[in-house]
Amino acid sequence: MSASIKLAKGRDKSVRRRHPWIFSRGIEMVTGDPQLGDTVDVFAHNGQWLAKAAYSPNSQIRARIWSFIKKEIDTAFFIERIQQAQMLREECIARGALTGYRLIAAESDSMPGVTIDKYQDYLVCQLLSAGAEKQKQHIVEALKHCFPECSIYERSDVAVRKKEGLEETTGLLHGTEPSEPIVIEENGVKIQVDIKTGHKTGFYLDQRDSRQHSMKYVKGKQVLNCFSYTGGFGLYALKAGAERVINVDVSQPALDIAKQNAELNGFNIKKAVFLNADVFKILREYRDQGTQFDVVIMDPPKMVSSKSNLTSGARGYKDLNMLAIQILKPGGTLLTYSCSGLMESGLFQKIIADAALDAGREVKFVESFTQASDHLFDTAYPEGLYLKGFAAKVV
Ligand code: SAH
User: Fold this and answer.
1) Which of 214, 250, 278, 303 to mutate to test the pocket of ligand 1 (most atoms within 8 A of CB)?
2) What pTM was computed for the model?
């Protein structure tokens, strides 16, 4: 008999509501000695079969559900999941003529711990959970079946793997190594993606829609693009006719690619600056010097990584946004985002309100944003909605 877990009394509710996580405290008994990533059957306290899940002995999230119906977790299973994910994205891909998109958004695509982004003919995988790691070969075989033309590259160099008892790892899983950065196109903007050494899988695909929405605020304007990475919002600003764009990031490789991206698109490079600086410091410098902008874009990395640092993370967001508001000209626009899933949109809105108070300026929200639709989320897994943003006018 295969290994199984029995839930404690009353702990089956979230599973019945199809949430994919089972916490260690919700488990009454584990039988059959499952090892790291093994597939286990999940039973309610009354003995009813509920799901098949991957066992993570080292994590608080002790099991992640693969399936709520009885079926083998094998190559055919993942083929079905991948085909469904592709189908759900067809409209989004066609609409944006996308050559780079998120194919698998982990739990949101019923593949816990598995993120897969597609950049042209490269599939870049991030396997974050013990179960994902255990199923690696099946996942690779399924990808080969669904996308025979594609090479597959692994970017599992993420610290959270430690919590699952896994080492960080990267490298080619199938096909050929990319010899140079891959060029994708979104909304008519060309972007180089370095899948081997770029952040995450190489690019922040989730901000695609926000980048496009930002274009209506920047024509003829002085734009400060904070946390620019490889250009992102700054490239769209140049395309939309910004007068000047200052891109700020602490990563020199990212800034080098940002400049190459501007050239690749044939944008007027004289209108762009690529500044290696700490955003927190440079904002204070601009404020103290009295340097002002028409538009400030604020897209920081995730600053809330666990419930325990929600307060300090919130303070970080408030500081950044206060400084941004202080350096905006009257009538200027703040485009601000948070990718911290643990900080809900309502709280982010309050933080901007506090930032406005501290800056001593009147601020009006004019638009709100969310992640692009290839970053869909399941009704049973609200955690899948993590990115929010606002456009706000500063009086
Ligand atoms: N807006 C980008 C994505 C930003 S990701 C896009 O549309 O693609 C966050 C970026 O913040 C990373 O490139 C990282 O190098 C940079 N970063 C992190 N801390 C920073 C700091 N204190 N000052 C400047 N840049 C920072």
Assistant:
1) 250
2) 0.96
